[in-house]
Amino acid sequence: MSKGIKLTIISLVFILLFSVALLMAGGEEDRTWPSIGNSRPSGMRAFSILLQEDGFQPVLSRQEVFDTEAGDLIIAAFIDQPSDGFFSTTKSSDLAKLSYDKHLENGGRIIALPFPVDFDDATERVYPQSLETEWLDEPLDVDYVSNYEEFEPTWAEADFSVDYSTSQSEQFLTYGGAKNGVIVLVSTGLGASNRRLGEEDNAEFFLELVRQNAEPGAKIIFSEVAFANTQGTSAFGLFGSWTKTVQNQILLLLVVVMVTLGTRFGLPIWQLQRERGASEMVDALAHTLRR
């Protein structure tokens, strides 16, 4: 095979791989993934930056078991409406519910943001609706998507009694007391996505929603377990987030032990070797002649 043919084949292979990469990247644009670490259209990276500029402390959490402090606000995004009204059917949901329950028992608040499975299709069907509440200075136009089923997190046993509807009588915002805390249900989280945050009054609304449910400078925990963006919990992690520090210390200790076992300390040991001289040569020759 000539050199020219080999170069042609190699070039075609590289073009094929590049095309596959472009197709995969294009497919990611349509994927619904409302993570604050996602800069694509369906992510909430821009929302987290907006909160940070307003003085809040946005934190991404992929832990199944996590602890919260007084004043922390949890924002839980999830995709579509699963059968139990909140979580996708993952093994981690039961562990996360315990963390959410503990947060509510301590008087914490949770904002639930549903996202559709087909992000592009839903954003094409979005139309603005005017929303007015007592904590908004003026009515705001927010994203709304029709034909969206109502949902409730049945596991929380919340009493949803406070509703806010749009000017067209569409239910958009619901408050529910759960244990000692509050769950805030938003009709759709599309307005908090990177693609839609800058449209209508979405940025102003979601920022004010956080302000009403968290103190200035509070930590905003984006818990992404609900849409299966999870990081497995180890046996240590089941006892609480403090065990993460213990686990890291143990790993560091093992590294130190392995390094020290393979390294010699102290003064160098000199290997002494007996040098052969003329006397040894004479003795050897005499021994040979005696035989």
Q: What labels would you give this structure?
A:
291 residues, alpha/beta, seven-stranded mixed β-sheet, 9 strands
Topology:
Blueprint (H helix, E strand, L loop, with lengths): L2 H28 L14 H9 L3 E5 L11 E7 L13 H13 L3 E7 L3 H6 L2 E5 L8 E5 L14 E7 L5 E8 L2 E6 L15 H12 L5 E5 L19 H19 L16 H13 L1
Parallel strand pairs: 1-9, 2-3, 2-9, 3-8
Antiparallel strand pairs: 4-5, 6-7, 7-8
Describe this structure in words.
- By secondary structure, this protein is α/β, with parallel strands linked by helices.
- The chain has helices spanning 3-30, 45-53, 93-105, 119-124, 202-213, 243-261, 278-290, and strands at residues 57-61, 73-79, 109-115, 127-131, 140-144, 159-165, 171-178, 181-186, 219-223.
- Strands 1-9-2-3-8-7-6 form a 7-stranded mixed β-sheet. It has a two-stranded antiparallel ribbon with strand order 4-5.
- The radius of gyration is 32 Å and the shape is elongated.
- The protein starts with a helix and ends with a helix.
